[in-house]
Amino acid sequence: MPLLNWLNKDSATKAAAKSAYRLLEEIPELSYGDNNSENLLIQGDNLEALKALIPFYAGKVKCIFIDPPYNTKSAFEHYDDNLEHSQWLSLMYPRLELLRELLSEDGSIWVTIDDNEAHYLKVIMDEVFGRKNFISNTVWQKKYAASNDAKSLSEDHDHILVYVKNKLAWIPNKLPRDMESNKSYKNPDNDDRGLWRADNYKCNKSSTERPNLYYPIKQPNTGEEIWPKKTAVWRYNIETHNKHIQDNLIWWGKDGTNSTPAFKRFLTTVDNTSNPQSVWLWQDVGHNQDAKREVMMLNPDAPFSTPKPEKLLNRVVQIASNENDIVLDSFLGSATTAAVAHKMNRRYIGIELGEHAKTHCQPRLQKVIDGEQGGISKAVNWQGGGGFRFCQLGATVFDEFGVLNHEIKFPTLAAHVWYIETRLPLGKKKRSPLIGIHNETAYYLLYNGILGDKRPNGGNVLTGKILECLPKFDGKKVIYGETTRLGDARLQQENITFKQIPYDVKAL
Q1: Does the pTM of the predicted model rise above 0.85?
Q2: What is the CATH number of domain 9-176+275-396?
Q3: What is the spatial distance between Cα 15 and Cα 24, in angstroms, rounded to a whole number?
């Protein structure tokens, strides 16, 4: 597969691994609503924030939507969109690597971009996600009218590059049929079964191919015998046709004298969903002016300069997730993704670097919880409720020499140890020295007084007494602790691999 090279690519491919692994610290006064909410609004550099999420959310995120800076050589108020080309590629590459790690096996990522970097982005996403996992270059019509001041062609669309973690596992949700699709359904004969449309009774097969479908049909009003043309046959065999007559499913026109029958296909028998298409018109998913009106209503004094309309995110979230799935946006901007995910009963994680995480994102989500009725609220019958936790990036888990920060608490280290051993997120676990069992190996952590005793011979040190206190497991055991008083023979006898804190705890 062809690869894209640029200045400093080597550094970009190592940036995710070298990024500091930090704690997430909640700011209670900026959190809002349900205290037990799993929704997160994170202020901080998105590379470090994504790294901090890995031990807890790797492989758990169903839908990722990002609207990164377009590198259009213009500066926007809330972020710098004037990055030199190679810098822009170096910005995107490590973030895409971490986003892929967070994505579930049946998850997808949707990235909006314009023509300036779209084709370069496609090549690096082929590299990170695998070319076989490319789904679509969806086109969004972002303007409803041509730009009269355009110097060449009016740029009326953006790209949405769609990739999946595993193409074999991803199944997109279908979309509800729109009213336009149902316009052809009428009820000219006042049938009690409701709206229907006349469907073709013939198909293009020869009578030699399908002789059982080549027979005469009697016109009920004229008595004429009607045969399909030699290059066609009826769609239904004679038995099915007779059943159609019995069930009043054949239409001969308003006056009953048509020379060809039609099948009455009722709307109630038609699938009320449709497959998503790769061209999204502004009439269906909104346009730039819709987005600007939405943010003006929410923050008239300082509206965000480059928002996306809620209807656009509604379409993405509809296709790519189900209720209670996790939706993530690491370039949160004005918080449209989080607002839409909240209204659609998804869990979400939003990351934003700038101060407007507090001035724009937090107030918007607070209004959503209070039941604001802008955007898609009426369409999804949003009434308010729920909550989110506002977090900032805290201390690093490891110092510059790779040594564990002594202030790290048990749940954080447990999640980290579990991830580096299994490459799986820990999730919510009961506080116990037994972190979990994976591939017939049990993993234990003796740290931070988990057994209620911080003395040298107590809960952080593996002794014979402590071993007896640990949850039992007959197979292989990996135990992390400050030190061990058990000799090599005893460790081997008990099938234990001991790893010393902090020296054997590695950074991600």
Answers
A1: no
A2: 3.40.50.150
A3: 20
